[in-house]
């Protein structure tokens, strides 16, 4: 039993099944990110004064990732073109490059994530803020024995074996600020002077890193880029399959294989398309 | 030589189908018909389950604080403290209410209408040998099944199932500390993924796999209805998936995308950053949930039109109008969603916009209903069970639709919002509307699935009892709603009853009269009656598989569309030879018919007539 | 894009790289706009988004071959675009259009 138009396009519609299916899927993806973009807008315009973070993300890394994805969009297309002109070697080369670029993208993204998780903000009891990367934290146990954690923070208390350690102080490499607005929306061109600031536990009202729970900007940042990264991951897994074990089909059904490369390429371009919008709204504005 | 080759080839296929074994044939099947039946049985089970949840709630509403008879002890044994002494606690009531809505919409009716009927009938009616992506089809059923399992399992986790209503409005859904909501969100992500895959599959099947000669305007209206409904699922569901992921982040990762600043629930929520937008959830939710109404109703209309054309023995009146109306309905349904949100402090400009679009969308609905009504005119109607259900659909959907108009205007909606009037309105659309259509469809296509008819007498018993009790249940709710009784009250409004308030010496204007409260009692017994009325159906459904009257041929209803041109039941691959289509879908009582009063779509001979020219 | 002859490969590859360089230039312009001394944030953001839209259009048109895509696909995408705009536009407008709070007399 053969499903018609699985490889050859249907004459009156001009497309084969998988291609139409992928376009429909992409249409639904447009709406998925549409929901997220409207969330971004509503959260941004509805954010209380001074709480929407701007300029937090590293524009250099964002730009590099944009270029990488744009280039991988080209290599995907050339891999398909190589299939179309029956040049399997070129296909292997271009799609190998696509996979490599995707992995670099994910690497840079995870470096950025890690950076945010080691970036802390302290609200002090007097209502002012200390903001910066964690330099270290000090803990004491009941016997008065001190423990120092370099470049780390393990919560208000932690237990190790029998001993319970309580937070004594936290040192951030950063700056002090009177209001959230100074931190989140600094004057354009203004650079905060960074130095090590140690805050005793007694003065800490609230401490947390720039994870998703920090504020609505980091929430939507992690949600959007996380979902996008999942798309990259899914896409690269499929592409890697076609590059590796799945490429056996080339020798039996080259037309069908070429279609697969075209359809997965469409998905890959869509992922690039989403990033083209994510980059400016998260990094640049 | 070539013929022998083809024959042996066919034999290989034949053997192949029989060699699949139990698991590949019935559980991990990629045959659209088996998947359709899987969808159907699962969805019917959920339909019954969702109905039982409501039956228990109706007891609590009518007799607040009294132990539920028969199932009360069972409930206590399974769920523990929330059903202590067999009495439904308010928390349990909230859980059941939320899950009744969720199960009925996402696990019962949509899977039955789109999953079961769509899967089984669309490839048959377009003359295809399967769906365009058979494996994807299997996967979408599995996603649906897992989503259902997650939803069902959430009843038994500590704290019970989600309690914030099927709409899951934030911040309520986030302020409830139990894990039910997390399960709900996870389940929804699975269900939405299933819907997306399924709907893309249906669309590709309709566009790509139509048989030769089956042009767009020769498609049965059922296929058109599935086509539009699939587009609604495809494009309206993703924003809710995004919203579901965001609420999951709020619930699990501690973000506050839907939690506003300064929110206090039994003390300020200190651990959240605030700054979120509760209205954002409502926008994204209703962006799906309004088109979802049409996902519920369009396939029902499709089923009804097939049955009406068949049993009036004449072409549908205004086939083209039906098609264009359903396309218009689909388009408009995307831009009416905020009429669910008039009470959120919406400005007049945007409210006017949504009132206008809401009034406009009633036009295509009325066109469809009118076409179906006029189709009855002058027909020699066969009043069999599927036809009875179809005929009942028309006024029931009419009541449901017309009572929606006052809700579409912000002025009247502000009084009626969140009352039992709303419940009555949308249940008239979905329960005696869509569910009746689904029953009609089951009675109508049952002989294609099994080769036997369902019992006609018990079918009629099922119909008349269901028809009477449905109306007895929902009609009083209009009165209750207009009197101001709010939905989602676990005591059925007793706290606002005039007599109760008078006893405590409080005088409140607009309190609920005893008559209004007493209606709860009538509704309870009508609901019990409706439950009993389903027994003949359930028995009939299973009994007839083996014992029903055998069909006289492959086309027992003398129908024209392609699914009746297959063997009964259709084998894997459906058609014995690829069908060719020569005419429109409803050529009943044709001019110059040769002895029979219908011309199947595959019949090349006979005077061609288009369904829209002869009325 | 259904046909690609071996003889066209060179020009096709060149076209892909033109699009790539255009996207790179667009990205550079976006970054420049974001760092520029334009003081009105509304103007700056609009400028950046317009460039992003141009970039996206380039990718969709040439790399995804929308320019040669079939009618049915284009119709679907057009409707998707309408609903996308409706979702974002109407929800944003609703957020903005709220009745002013007036003290009771």
How are the SSEs ordered, and which strands pair?
The complex is a heterotrimer of chains A (about 280), B (about 625) and C (about 100).
Chain A: H1 17-46, H2 59-84, H3 88-117, E1 119-124, E2 129-141, E3 146-150, E4 157-160, E5 163-177, H4 180-184, E6 195-200, E7 204-209, H5 216-243, H6 249-252, H7 254-284
Antiparallel strand pairs in A: 1-2, 1-7, 2-3, 2-5, 4-5, 5-6
Helix pairs in contact in A: 1-5, 1-7, 2-3, 2-7, 3-5, 5-7
Chain B: H1 2-18, H2 21-27, H3 32-62, H4 71-79, H5 90-125, H6 134-153, H7 172-175, H8 180-208, H9 221-252, H10 278-312, H11 319-332, H12 348-376, H13 385-402, H14 405-408, H15 410-416, H16 420-450, H17 456-482, H18 498-503, H19 514-547
Helix pairs in contact in B: 3-5, 3-6, 3-19, 5-6, 5-8, 5-9, 5-10, 5-16, 6-8, 8-9, 9-10, 9-11, 10-12, 10-13, 10-16, 11-12, 12-13, 13-16, 13-17, 16-17, 17-19
Chain C: H1 9-35, H2 41-63, H3 71-96
Which percent band covers the strand fraction of chain C?
under 5%
CATH topology of the domain at 35-256 and 276-340 in chain B: Cytochrome C Oxidase, Chain A
Tell me which oligomeric state these chains represent.
heterotrimer
Distance between the termini of chain C: 68 Å
The CATH homology group name of the domain at 35-256 and 276-340 in chain B = Cytochrome c oxidase-like, subunit I domain
Biggest β-sheet strands, sense, barrel of chain C: none
Which CATH class of the domain at 35-256 and 276-340 in chain B is shown? Mainly Alpha
Order of helices and strands of chain B: HHHHHHHHHHHHHHHHHHH
Uncertain regions of chain C: pLDDT < 50 for 5+ in a row?
none
Helix content of chain B: 55-70%
Largest sheet of chain B: none
Question: Counting H and I runs of at least 4 residues, what is the number of helices of chain C?
Answer: 3
Radius of gyration of chain C (Å): 21 Å
Number of strands of chain C: 0
Shape of chain B: globular
Q: Give me the secondary-structure category of chain C.
A: mainly alpha
């Amino acid at each position: 039993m053969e499903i018609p138009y699985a490889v050859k396009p249907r004459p009156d519609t001009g497309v084969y099944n998988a291609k139409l299916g992928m376009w429909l899927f992409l249409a639904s993806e447009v709406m998925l990110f549409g929901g997220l973009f409207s969330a971004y807008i509503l959260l941004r315009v509805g954010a209380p004064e001074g709480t929407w973070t701007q300029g937090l993300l590293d524009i250099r890394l964002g730009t590099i990732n944009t270029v990488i994805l744009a280039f991988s969009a080209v290599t995907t297309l050339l891999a398909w073109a190589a299939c179309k002109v029956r040049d399997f070697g070129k296909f292997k080369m271009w799609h190998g490059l696509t996979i490599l670029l995707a992995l670099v993208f994910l690497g840079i993204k995870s470096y950025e994530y890690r950076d945010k998780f080691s970036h802390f903000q302290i609200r002090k009891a007097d209502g002012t803020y200390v903001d910066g990367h964690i330099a270290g934290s000090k803990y004491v146990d009941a016997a008065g024995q001190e423990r120092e954690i370099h470049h780390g923070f393990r919560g208000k208390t932690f237990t190790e074996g029998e001993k319970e350690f309580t937070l004594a102080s936290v040192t951030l490499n950063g700056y002090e600020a009177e209001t959230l607005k100074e931190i989140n929306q600094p004057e354009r061109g203004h650079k905060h002077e960074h130095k090590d600031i140690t805050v005793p536990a007694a003065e800490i009202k609230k401490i947390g890193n720039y994870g998703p729970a920090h504020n609505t900007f980091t929430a939507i940042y992690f949600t959007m880029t996380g979902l996008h990264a999942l798309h990259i991951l899914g896409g690269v897994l499929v592409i890697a399959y076609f590059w590796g074990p799945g490429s056996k089909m080339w020798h039996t059904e080259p037309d069908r294989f070429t279609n697969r490369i075209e359809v997965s390429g469409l998905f890959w371009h869509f992922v690039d398309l989403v990033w083209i919008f994510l980059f400016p709204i998260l990094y640049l504005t | 030589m070539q013929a022998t080759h083809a024959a042996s080839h066919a034999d290989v296929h034949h053997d192949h189908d029989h060699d699949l074994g139990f698991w590949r044939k019935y559980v991990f099947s990629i045959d659209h018909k088996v998947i359709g039946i899987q969808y159907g049985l699962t969805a019917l089970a959920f339909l019954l389950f969702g109905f039982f949840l409501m039956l228990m709630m109706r007891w609590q509403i009518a007799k607040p604080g009294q132990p539920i008879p028969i199932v009360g002890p069972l409930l206590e044994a399974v769920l523990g403290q929330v059903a202590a002494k067999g009495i439904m606690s308010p928390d349990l009531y909230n859980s059941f209410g939320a899950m009744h809505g969720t199960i009925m919409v996402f696990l019962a009716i949509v899977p039955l209408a789109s999953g079961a009927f769509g899967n089984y009938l669309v490839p048959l009616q377009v003359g295809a040998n399967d769906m365009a992506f058979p494996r994807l089809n299997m996967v979408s059923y599995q996603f649906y099944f897992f989503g259902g399992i997650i939803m069902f399992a959430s009843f038994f986790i500590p704290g019970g199932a989600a309690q914030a209503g099927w709409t899951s409005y934030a911040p309520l859904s986030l302020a409830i500390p139990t894990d039910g909501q997390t399960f709900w969100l996870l389940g929804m992500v699975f269900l939405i993924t299933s819907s997306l895959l399924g709907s893309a599959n249906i669309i590709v099947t309709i566009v790509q796999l139509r048989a030769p000669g089956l042009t767009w305007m020769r498609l049965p209206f059922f296929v058109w209805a599935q086509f539009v409904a699939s587009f609604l699922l495809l494009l309206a569901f993703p924003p809710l998936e995004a919203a579901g992921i965001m609420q999951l982040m709020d619930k699990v990762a501690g973000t506050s995308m839907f939690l506003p600043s300064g929110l206090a629930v039994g003390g300020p929520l200190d651990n959240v950053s605030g700054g979120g937008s509760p209205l954002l959830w409502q926008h994204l939710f209703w962006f799906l949930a309004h088109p979802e109404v049409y996902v519920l109703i369009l396939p029902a209309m499709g089923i009804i039109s097939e049955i009406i054309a068949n049993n009036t023995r004449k072409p549908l009146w205004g086939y083209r109008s039906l098609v264009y109306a359903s396309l218009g309905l689909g388009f408009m349904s995307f831009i009416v969603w905020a009429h669910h949100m008039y009470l959120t402090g919406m400005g007049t400009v945007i409210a006017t916009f949504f009132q206008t679009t809401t009034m406009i969308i009633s036009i295509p609905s009325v066109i469809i209903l009118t076409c179906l009504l006029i189709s009855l005119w002058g027909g020699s109607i066969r009043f069999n069970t599927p036809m009875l259900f179809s005929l009942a659909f028309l006024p029931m959907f009419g009541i449901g639709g017309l009572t929606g108009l006052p809700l579409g205007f912000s002025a009247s909606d502000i009084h009626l919002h969140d009352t039992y009037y709303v419940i009555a309105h949308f249940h008239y659309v979905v329960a005696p509307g869509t569910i009746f259509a689904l029953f009609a469809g089951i009675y109508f296509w049952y002989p294609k699935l099994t080769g036997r008819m369902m019992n006609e007498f018990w079918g009629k018993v099922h119909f008349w009892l269901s028809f009477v009790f449905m109306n007895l249940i929902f009609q009083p709710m209009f009165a209750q709603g207009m009197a101001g009784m709010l939905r989602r009250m676990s005591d059925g409004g007793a706290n606002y009853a005039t007599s109760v308030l008078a006893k405590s010496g409080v005088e409140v204007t607009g309190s609920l009269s005893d008559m209004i409260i007493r209606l709860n009692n009538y509704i309870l017994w009508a609901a019990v009656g409706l439950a009993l009325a389903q027994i003949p159906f359930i028995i009939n459904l299973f009994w007839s598989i083996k014992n029903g009257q055998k069909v006289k041929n492959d086309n027992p209803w003398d129908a024209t569309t392609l699914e009746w041109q297959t063997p009964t039941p259709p084998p894997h691959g459906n058609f014995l030879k690829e069908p060719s289509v020569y005419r429109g879908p409803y050529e009943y009582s044709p001019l110059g018919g040769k002895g029979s009063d219908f011309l199947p779509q595959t019949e090349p001979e006979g005077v061609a007539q288009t369904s829209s020219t002869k009325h | 894009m259904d046909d690609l002859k071996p003889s066209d490969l060179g020009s096709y590859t060149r076209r892909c790289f033109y699009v790539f360089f255009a996207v790179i230039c667009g990205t550079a312009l976006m970054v420049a706009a974001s760092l520029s001394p334009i003081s009105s944030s509304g103007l700056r953001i609009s400028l950046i988004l317009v460039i992003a839209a141009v970039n996206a259009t380039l990718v969709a048109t040439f790399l995804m071959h929308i320019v040669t895509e079939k009618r049915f696909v284009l119709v679907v995408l057009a409707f998707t675009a309408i609903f996308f705009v409706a979702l974002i536009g109407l929800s944003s407008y609703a957020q903005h259009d709220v009745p002013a709070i007036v003290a009771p007399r």
